[in-house]
Design goal:
Keywords: Cell membrane, Lipid biosynthesis, Lipid metabolism, Membrane, Phospholipid biosynthesis, Phospholipid metabolism, Repeat, Transferase, Transmembrane, Transmembrane helix. It comes from Spiroplasma platyhelix PALS-1. It is an enzyme of class 2 (transferase). The chain crosses the membrane at residues 7-27, 33-54, 61-81. By secondary structure, the chain is of the alpha/beta class. The chain has three domains: 2-82, no CATH class; 88-119 and 143-328, Endonuclease Chain A (Endonuclease, Chain A); 340-505, Endonuclease, Chain A. The chain has 18 helices and 19 strands. The strands form four sheets. Strands 9-18-16-15-10-12-13-19 form an eight-stranded mixed β-sheet, with helices on both faces. Helix 3 (57-69) runs antiparallel to helix 4 (73-82) and helix 12 runs parallel beside helix 13.
Length: 506
């Protein structure tokens, strides 16, 4: 209740200030050409600054339209929410610590593969490994067991079993942690582990969990002896641009040798107990060497929040896995100079010769992603997108549909999942490459939020996920024409224009 009141009061305050500013502007503009000149100069300078920033042209154009079409208000919105490099101080610290975390990785297998000392891999495979290693600054690992977990109940049944076996430490990193039966079940296990001497560290995103995690629960968690930190806390009524950049990960690391990543948050919604229907989702469980990268990602996030480098020793040697599966962790966020995961998607789409199957709950892709999908389909590749047909907010569904025309025209097959909410983020490319993670195909995921993506090179894993895709296609409707066309043309074209302008800002 307190959170809702704070949010409401802050909203009313800012609405009042905006209305007052607009009123004064309109009132005095009739009497003062100086005021008009000042606003015009500030608008022009803001447009120039936007144009000179190193960012996607779609985002630049969207902000320029907002600033020009909404005098005063547009300028306010840009300077509060629209500026890049919002973590300038943090970015410098991040770069200074980069070498430290970089050296913590094990690069031996990567060097062996990239130096072509292992004849198993084709020149094309080596080119992909070389590319992903260079853009992500993460090594490739082998000797890692991979298990695909479908939907929340299967995922949390396994997580709880692994938590009960923890001996040294537990790291958990979630966009959403919500009060409910699932959280209480996990807290009972964690409380017992803390009493046994296991160190527990949890990160939760303040925006993602804002209305779902009560102050009372937070106090209770900290009383248990759990190290509990919120990511980028909101301090209303103060607004800063950093509030727009969130931690969207859903990662768990146990004793340095078991790890989880994917799209499943820690909430009753994801085990179908919240009354919000059935949620289709996917997580991957890793056991072995690749967990080292996942643990380093958590340690970097912990340092980002607290300024403290966690003093824990890696424990991967306690579990010996021997296999040929290649796993690479690819993390991304506003601290990186490049849109690493977007570039990875484009590279995988472009290299595929047989199939590109992707599922995402939100489709607001960049222009170059659309081009990559279209070019792949035009080349005869079986390109399929599995998207939600049911969402909590139908505006988001229609926003995604504004991209259907260009994709359908090129031969991309679009499926809308019926009867359940499809929240999975995964893809398969030909017969070997697989990706699972927290990343949606939208501007926010690809540019603004901290994300974790697991890239897997393995035929069996690819085959397992392909069978899951085939099941999803059976429960989905194949789209022949854009559903937006079934409404009146005015809605279709006006909505299309507005969404294309605003989508890069979400």
């Amino acid at each position: 209740m307190r959170k809702r009141v704070n949010l409401l009061l802050s909203f009313v305050l800012y609405l009042f200030l905006i209305c007052l500013t607009v009123f004064l502007f309109i009132y005095y503009i009739r009497y003062s050409w100086v005021l008009l000149l000042i606003v015009a100069i500030v608008t022009i300078l803001t447009v120039i600054i936007i144009f000179l920033t190193n960012r996607l042209i779609d985002v630049k154009l969207s902000w320029i339209i907002v600033v020009v079409c909404l005098p005063v208000l547009g300028i306010f919105l840009y300077w509060v929410f629209g500026r890049p490099y919002r973590y300038r101080k943090k970015q410098k610290v991040h770069l200074n610590l980069f070498k430290y975390f970089y050296k913590q990785e094990d690069w031996n297998f990567t060097r062996e593969v990239l130096n072509n000392e292992n004849p198993k891999y084709s020149a094309e495979d080596l080119a992909i490994f070389n590319y992903t290693t260079r853009i992500s600054f993460r090594p490739i690992y082998t000797n890692t067991d991979v298990r695909i977990l479908v939907n929340g109940p299967e995922n949390y049944y396994q997580i709880i079993a692994d938590l009960k076996e923890a001996k040294k430490y537990i790291f958990m990193n979630y966009y959403i942690i919500g009060d409910g039966e699932l959280l209480e079940t996990i807290l009972k296990v964690l409380e017992k582990k803390v009493k046994e001497g296991v160190k527990v560290y949890i990160i939760y995103d303040h925006v993602g969990s804002y209305f779902q995690l009560s102050h009372e629960t937070i106090r209770r968690i900290k009383k248990m002896g759990i190290n509990f930190q919120r990511f980028a806390p909101i301090k209303l009524p103060i607004l800063t641009g950093s509030y727009n950049f969130r931690n969207h990960r859903k990662d768990v690391i146990i004793d340095g040798h078991i790890g989880y990543a994917g799209g499943i948050n820690l909430s009753d919604t994801y085990i179908h107990l919240s009354g919000r229907g059935f949620w289709r989702d996917t997580q991957v469980r890793l056991v072995g060497d690749a967990v080292k990268s996942l643990e380093l990602i958590f340690r970097q996030d912990w340092h980002f929040i607290t300024g403290v480098i966690l003093d824990v020793s890696f424990n991967t040697s306690s579990v010996k896995i021997k296999n040929d599966i290649i796993v690479q962790l690819v993390d991304d966020g506003p601290l990186t100079k490049e849109a690493v995961q977007k570039d990875l998607f484009i590279r995988y789409i472009s290299m595929a010769k047989k199939r590109v199957w992707i599922t995402t709950p939100y489709l607001f892709p960049t222009g170059d992603l659309i081009t990559a999908l279209r070019n792949s389909a035009y080349s005869g590749v079986d390109v399929r997108l599995c998207l939600p047909g049911i969402v909590e907010h139908y505006l988001l569904l229609d926003m995604g549909r504004t991209y259907y025309d260009a994709l359908l025209e090129a031969g991309v097959k679009i499926y809308e999942y019926a009867h359940v909410v499809n929240h999975s983020k995964m893809g398969i490319f030909d017969d070997k490459f697989t990706i699972i993670g927290s990343t949606n195909l939208d501007y926010r995921s690809l540019y603004s939020d901290h994300q974790t993506l697991v890239s897997i090179y393995d035929e069996k894993t690819n085959e397992v996920l392909a069978s899951k895709f085939s099941e999803d296609f059976k429960y989905s409707n194949l789209i022949k024409s854009n559903p937006l066309l079934q409404r009146n043309k005015f809605y279709h074209y006006v909505f299309l224009f507005l969404m294309r302008v605003l989508a890069p800002l979400f």
